[in-house]
Amino acid sequence: MPNASARPKHGRRARRRRREDPARNELVSSSLESAQQCLFNQDYGTAFVHYLLVLNLAPVFKDFAKESFRFTLFKWTEELDSVGRIQDLFDCYEQALELFPADEVILNSMGEHLFRMGFRDEAAGHFHKALKLRPDYPEARENFYRVANWLVERWHFLMLNDRGRNRKYQQAIQKAVQSGCNTVLDIGTGTGILGMCAKKAGAAEVYACELSKTMYELACEVVTANGMDGCIKILHMKSLEMEVPKDIPHRVSLVVTETVDAGLFGEGIIESLIHAWRHLLLPPQEQSATGRVIPAGATVFGMAVECLEIRRHHRLCVSEVGSLSLAAAGELRSPVSCSSEPDDSMEPYTTERLSRLPGGYKPLTEPFTALNIDFNNVQELEGLSSREVQKIHLPVTQEGELDALAVWFQLHLDEESSLSTGPQEDTCWEQAIYPVHSFLLKPLDELIVEVSCRDAYLRLCSVAVLRDGHEIRLDKRVDSQYTGNPISNQNPEAELCSALACLQTNQNQTKDFSMLECSEMALLNNHDYHQSFCSALAKLMSQLKVKWQNQERGSGVQSDSSDLLYVLDVSEGFSLLSLIAASHGHVKAYSSVEKKKQQEVLKRLARSNNIPEQHLEFWLNHVDDEHGILQRPSREKLWSAIILDCVETCGLIRQKLMEKASLARCLLEEGGRIFPEKIVVHGMLVESDTLLLESAVQGQEPTLGFNIAPFINQFTVPVHVFLDFSTLECRHLSECVELFVLDLMDATANYTNREVKVQATSAGRITAIPFWYHIYLDQEISVSTLSKNSHWKQAAVVLQQPLEVQAGDWVRLAVKLHKSTISMSIHGRTATEDLG
Ligand code: 44T
User: Which protein residue's CA is at the shortest distance from atom 31 of ligand 1?
Assistant: First the structure.
């Protein structure tokens, strides 16, 4: 019980009032008692209301009741979350934060809810605040790192580190301002850099707008730090919502912007500029006041390429995996695969840095000009979407499989100066990749590509090939008679099954398709991964069957041939592993595939591979809370195997993996297994400037004379994800070393800290430690996330303070596991002799 005689330490008036108000004191203490009673009875909603009342009436109890209040809040909001009362949930958090505005635990927890609901910007704000309040708070730190990548995208660092680009923009702006463009609007200001350039060049009025809250706040901080807070008016809004005179007093004479993505139009520059010309800019070419835009225009280039890496992420390339024939899978598409009736809501391209694609690429044509656009001509901008589809004939220069059209552009800042995002340039920019219908092109062929502009995207499609005077249509081609699957004709028997499956389900396969994420497609194409699972499962099955037989013999009980092994696959997304398990016979497999269409694919594959229908179930159809996932299907049956998906595509250990593993261990039958049983983290010391440039603004020098680095660098994250280690430009400074072991089967084998001593094999600056995993399905069978066919990328710890080493030096790596997050730090250099 709280000390009822505790004196409120507030002002005299409050004290007097409270003394004068015994009824109020009565209410407070009875409410406090009720709150505690409700908490005890697990009636969290009522407890929460009582606590609110108490703490609002008697803030003196805040210290005393803080822990219970938090606990109540978390329990109650968990309940609200589970029944979808989202508004109520956030109301509770807001009330809680009014009472405890500087409580990092509440801030962090509210951030987690916001993040789950998709409010990433707001979530990040909460994690950031929590972290500022308590910099060593691991939960907030981990959360902040996860969102920082979304918010302040990594290209900000690249752009600010790209001196060439900065200087070109600065010069173009300076020239325009000096030639009379006196009022400037920076659309999508980011850190505020272009707006500050305009001010520095002497513009009388500078306005800037920024859509993202995080970036807007950052721009305000940067502009203030550079002594320009009175001189640049920054608005937190999308340029399309701006009006004269509401937001800016009059039309401006110059718009500067770099709202372009790898496909040029993806950030909506066309729409923004049409709106700006109609509402925010002075008309062009008038004597005294002329409106204009930097950049003045762009030229878009394209090129056909062969690239295995792109192919395996966008098309099914194998006909069977782990003993299953895939012929009946139906058409599987990646979200950006080219189709004859493209879904307009989808982005038509993905982005890659061609020069960094593992396995490289082969150009099949010369680069061609796909489009020219003048940003200073509003009629041209408006006419873009109604422009006729342009057909381009491209002579094929090399034989190869057509996998994609790669696109890049030149951004003409003004008549003199331009930036290029081409694959050959020494820049950091990615290219846009349009995966297309596969076809083997030969020299002397002519590829016909259609270029159009729809829904503010540039769309490219390879439609036909001219060969020996004949036109072979690519867009109308049905890859295979039954399945739309390019590899199906390799196995006539399977094709027959597939046809049968189609008849049974009465599905029109050519019209119907299932969507897989690129990483899911690459996983499906990963033959070795599935083969490893297939063998490991087969081994376990036969061990368990032998064990059962022995038990039966021992007990004299007759063998029940209907006895089944139960296998649960809790992989995220699309997974064939349950089906592979079921294909071993006497197995009842549970899949966690959630999407209806993907479930249909699994059912079709079950039928065509002669797996009894009742041997495959969809677990999540019945269960949706996290802990429910791992509960067994019926009381008398324990799981023989539980398959956990332990590494995310981005190269990090999945969140809550270790918690899931300990739950899973409790649900296994004797002799049962978790797949994988163990994960070993491997890594290497490297020197890589590229990684530094992508993770923080480097160097002490101000950016174009402005102080920007310390502000944007608050969003530096120590772990770089989605890395292709095989093509990373870097020098290896050590051998590969084992960094950490996670044992999923034996909790007692785990530790949370490990010190690893690594010897440098050559001299250099250690700037990063790329890491990856060897995933052990059992003692003999393992898969590596670094392998050539892997659907996983790698991650790397980036050291903002590089460490100089000589060949032969030893360094100590402190590797830590907190929850499921691995972190690493380098602890100085040790002379060789110290280690003995
Ligand atoms: N492009 C680099 C930078 N925004 C991406 O919220 C350029 C990448 C690049 N704000 C190839 C070439 C290059 N009104 O913070 C963002 C965004 C904001 C707006 C207000 C609007 N209408 C918009 C539109 C976007 O602008 C900032 C920059 S946009 C992304 C720039 C050589 N690959």
Answer: 259
